[in-house]
Please model this.
Amino acid sequence: MTRKYSTTSVATTLAATISSSAVTISVAAGTGSALMGGVSLAAGNVDQFLVALDVDTQNEEIVAVTAISGDTLTVVRAQAGSSNISHTAGASVKHVFTGDDATFFTAGVATADAAIPKSLVTTKGDIIVATASATPARLGAGVNGYVLKANSSTATGLEWATAAVAVDDPYPTSFMLMGA
Model:
């Protein structure tokens, strides 16, 4: 699930009281999209946007907004260590950045850092090889007509070499018939 953030979101209020088990909430008329600061959520519950209900009070609850339809938000309750509780009409609703967001971001950076960077390959035909466990390297494209073969004495364990028999010549010279 992708987390969405906005620096231009606008705080709003609940339009009606919600129970501790409600999975949709209504905000003040005309403020549903402003709450998201123009950030849109993809259909299918793949994006989320965190908001706090009853911000900075003993009743604060963090919820993940997963869909917006006008001023009605579909939410997943009790996020970031908060608890499901009832909230009264007029309670504040505000986009927040939580410690869970920071953890989510840090985990994403760690995943990206562990990925093989696309800058490793620099030329058409490059191959990604390993020089040791978890140590990717680049093997440049070979010369036309060469084949890739195993060679345990090289750093990558591979090398480009001439083919033993030309693979694109259907009539090797040793089989040619000479005319009389």
